[in-house]
Amino acid sequence: LITEPVITHRDLTVTARRGEYLVDLREARLQDGVHYREPDFSGYSDRALYYRDTELMVASGNVTLEGDSLRIATDVVRYDRRTGRAVLTGGVDGTRGGRRLIAQRGEWDRNADTLTLIGGVIVTDPANGSTVTGNHLVYDLATDRAQVSEQPALDLTSTQDGRIRIRGDRMWVAGERVIHAAGNVTVVRGGITAFA
């Protein structure tokens, strides 16, 4: 094992406390305090494997990814540098601005500037008093819009209006309070339920 290894490949730099490089496999195995960074993106983990020929990194254990205004914690990430896609498994807990993002798994496509969250999705925005839930959410990071499919719901809470719950087959949320719902829409406010 090498102590304090530094691996560079194109615009990627990876450091760790310990690691080894398998020359025949062109594979780096790193552990303890792994830090990887490239322009506009960085991450930390307990362990990481980097496959030089395929430019694939598999990081595990206390993984944290950061880029622009997005920060994500997960158990395992498979980051393909060629496609710019990071597949997140083992739970996703992230933040963007003041919003908190939670899901069972996800995919961050850095080239398309989208974050897809799957399974038990919860997005809370305390500043606007809103919570979006569903099983599949695609968040366009460039436009700050999200499309929710598979059991979407939006809860809005304000001191003036109380609690409003909106459900539909599909939902689009843009910015603070622009909401579009389609297919079997219900709106509940107080004891009143409206259908569309």
Write up what this structure looks like.
The protein has strands at about 1-5, 5-10, 10-15, 20, 25-40, 40-50, 55-65, 70-80, 85-95, 100-105, 105-110, 115-125, 130-140, 145-150, 155-160, 160-165, 170-175, 180, 185-190, 190-195. With about 200 residues, it is mainly β. It has a 20-stranded antiparallel β-sheet that branches. Strand 5 and strand 6 form a beta hairpin. It is elongated, with a radius of gyration of 20 Å.
Structural class designation: mainly beta
Determine the mean pLDDT: 88
State the separation between the terminal residues, measured CA to CA.
64 Å
SSE arrangement, N to C? EEEEEEEEEEEEEEEEEEEE
| Rg over CA atoms | 20 Å
- Helical residue percent band: under 10%
Number of helices: 0
Q: How many strands?
A: 20
Strand content: over 45%
Shape: elongated
Low-confidence stretches: none
Q: Main β-sheet: number of strands, strand sense, barrel status?
A: 20 strands, antiparallel
